[in-house]
Amino acid sequence: MTTELSNFAARLREIILSEGRVPRGPDSELRTPNSELRNHNGDSCNSPLRDFNSLALELFALQFQHNAAYRKICEARGLTPEVVEHWTRIPAVPTSAFKELELTCLAPAERTAVFHSSGTTEQKPSRHFHNAESLAVYEASLWVWFEKRFLRSADSLSASSEKRGQAVRAPLVILTPSPMQAPHSSLVHMFETVRQKLGGASVPALSSRRSRWGGEGGSRAEFPGSIAADGSWVLDFDAALKALRESCANGKPLIMLGTAFSFVHLLDFLAEQDLRFQLPAGSQVMETGGYKNRSRSLPKAELHQLITERLGVPPSHIICEYGMSELSSQAYDRVAGDGWRVTDKDSTPRHSTLVTRHFLFPPWVRLQIVSPETGYEVAEGETGLIRVFDLANVFSVMAIQTEDLGIRRAEHFELIGRAALAEPRGCSLMVAETRKS
Amino acid sequence: MNLPNYFLADLPPEAVLSPAMVTEACRTLKRNRAQYLAQRSTASLVGVLCDVAEAWLKPDNAFRRLALESGPEKTGFSQATLQKGLDNFFHQFTPENFHALLVQELGDARRLDRFVACGGDVPVAGVSGFGSNRAALAVGPELLVHIAAGNLPNPALMSMVLGLLTRSAQFVKCAHAAAFLPRLFAHSIYDADTKLGACLEIAEWHGGNVELEAALFAEADCVTATGSDETLAAIRLCLPVKTRFLSYGHRVSFGFVAGAVLHGSHTRQIISRAADDVVAWNQLGCLSPHVVYVQTGGEVSPEKFAELLADELERREQTEPRGELPAEHAATIASRRGIYEVRAAHSPETTQHWCSRNSTAWTVVYEADARFQLSCLNRFIYVKGVRDLTEALQNAETVRGQVSTVGLAVPEHKLEELAAQLARWGATRVCPLGRMQNPPLTWRHDGRPALGDLVTWTDMEMG
Fold it and tell me: What is the extent of the structural domain holding B185?
């Protein structure tokens, strides 16, 4: 690793944190058709992120120099820092490449943490290596945007909005295993960072976490998930129920974070037990990810409807996150309430099915929707593959080509789904998915 | 051309099918069969089928024109792909081929018409002592139900043909949005012979509609189905015990090219045949190759073969374009190409790839790793080098038992030996490279009898 990259990481972290200090809510989005600015949300006019291009090209040059695996891909495409003049031309690596290559600027000895993708056990997982500096950027990135897009959105929506000072002490339920049980999950690391920022007990640094993590940080009530013998994530329903009951009893709004499949597990359990909760006003839910065959699959709208029915959290307080282990930043879908309040005051939909959910990345991220046929950016409103340029991926690769399909909607994007059968797989799986003549 | 409303699939899209409608359709089919079909002779049925096919092959035929004009939009295949696929299919319909099919399946072409003894003699009233003291007559199911998969039209059309030969009333349940060509074929039969057409029903709905399927299965004597293992298992569970069930599950196919045939002008011919197999029906059928194994040590290396195949696929794209794909399928190809691009950049000695420019129209991947790899199809082909067929089969062990067709390009004197090796290994069809997606009328689907599985025999023993 080099001083240059460390310097870049430190600078970027400062920029991200300063973005977090900009006193703008989600309703004051900067809306402009200019592609340079269209991903910006709430960044100040003087923000260094106004010159995303310079930052991106600077980082590209550093990654080209220090990430050997990435350099080979760039050279094969004939796209080197000498010829790339705009961030849109920076070579994007497919997420699948993280499974096969060590796409990192960190020397083996410097890698203190690694996040894996949550694939099936038959497949090689992605590996995204980190050290303390890169985790610091990741944590800054995830927290600033979580705070702005998730926490503050509820503030601005709730009629009885609490002040931020109070909100940060909201009790949390995180429907995943604890960081000790899932040290290689970038999602769990994110939730743990959020938990600490929201006033949870402090925990030792990641490097020593395995040995010292315990009773105080990340209690059973906060992480009612665990890992089953087969490696799957399961929920301790009793612990989850306890947290739900406590919240209802003391009237304190609850924040629930989890994967879509863990919510399905919980909701199915509540249905089985014929239990319904009315969580206190201001309670919020964040769900993320697909089902990965870990639960029955159901459309987002149906999941959200069940959350509303069983937990009493209205659609406006349910937010989806889009993230992956190969990135260091996340997108949240546009607060459902924004749209209706602005466009249709008189007929507020009661139900999330009536609201199209659009995602937004933070201003240190740019997004392209590219044609799977040509690789070129498609027009707004057309379906294509999502390509992400995440400056917070300082020590790996900034430009990531996902296998997800999306549609650009102004500065937001709509998530359509994932390309099926993309990855060559072990035959037992492959054959199960063969098309039949 | 507007198709008249003969079949359930002709109803406007907003029409909702009910179980009662399905039951009523089945009973009407049975009545019509008793009246119009049960007593028909094999010769007259073969005559109608050959006439229908001949009509389809004429450029100005209304059904053909509709298939080619609306087909690209309705099926996703380009006009050229549809034309070639349908022409290859209908060219098979000759009296000679039907005769061969009947003899192969029933031992004697007359056995659906009357009792025929083993020696071919027919019993004559009052005369005993003909060649054998035993004769047999084959009878088809009264109501034959087909649950057709969506990818290609041919399997559904062929099922209908076999069912007509066995004098069965037939209900063809097509996959959602996949009824277009089966429906046109049924209309063309109706047009040629109204009474035969009245013994056919075509409908489409999303598979797994329990109520409609229960109504259908309750009336069926025999059900054929193609689809995933899950689909087949679900259907099996819903069938009454007395109902015969013929299921056709997952199958994959591959090609094998011997090094000895790749020399001089032959090379170009072999490459062209490999391209035929990749292009036919956009590689979407079970009979289409996922991988072409090329023997090493010949004049043309597997890598060179892959490169030449890429050139040929590019030429084919000009004359027989693949057609547009939905974004999610194109995304699958793009994502998989991404993987091989990365591998090729890092280890070009073991991975190379060739792609159509600015489109996903075709892709060739050369891999030194000879393990069988499932393609994402739509003209995405793997080329892998092996020492011999034995090594190819070792690498295809993961799909053993699920291989339908192996397309061979090998020296003639080696053909029988290699075919026997493949047969013992478990492949159910061996054919020349270039004809993989074009099986003859006599083809035994998945190695099972074509008519033999449909009929029930009545043996007559003479005193």
Answer: 8-249+444-461
Task: Please give the model's pTM, rounded to 2 decimal places.
Answer: 0.89
pLDDT score recorded for residue A165: 43
Q: In chain A, which residues have pLDDT < 50?
A: 25-44, 159-168, 203-217, 336-354, 425-437
Q: How far is CA A167 from CA A153, A160, A190, A257, in A?
A: 12, 12, 19, 15
Chain B positions touching A419 (Cβ under 8 A) are: 328, 331-332, 334-335
Test mutation, A122, A382, A387, A434, chain B, max B CBs within 10 A: A434
Domain presence at residue B2:
no
Do B213 and B267 belong together in one domain?
no
Rounded-to-integer distance, Cα A90 and Cα A403, Å: 18
Identify the pLDDT of residue A2.
76
Q: In Å, how far are B122, B201, B231, B276, B427 from B287, measured between CA atoms?
A: 39, 27, 20, 12, 11
Same-domain pairing of B58 and B163: yes
Low pLDDT (below 70) residues in chain B: 123-132
Based on the fold, state whether residues A346 and A374 are members of the same structural domain: no
Asked if residues B286 and B252 have their Cβ atoms less than 8 Å apart, the reply is yes
User: Which residue in B156, B201, B206 sits closest to B176, CA to CA?
Assistant: B206
Token code pair at residue B116: 């025929």
A228 contacts A234 by C-beta, under 8 angstroms: yes
Residue A58 lies in a domain: yes
Tally C-beta pairs within 8 A across A and B: 138
How many domains would you assign to chain A? 2
ipTM: 0.89
Domain range for A348: 133-360
In order, the DSSP letters of B52-72 are HHHHHTSTT-HHHHHHHHHHH
> Residues A304-339: pLDDT tens digits?
999 999 999 999 899 999 999 999 999 999 654 444
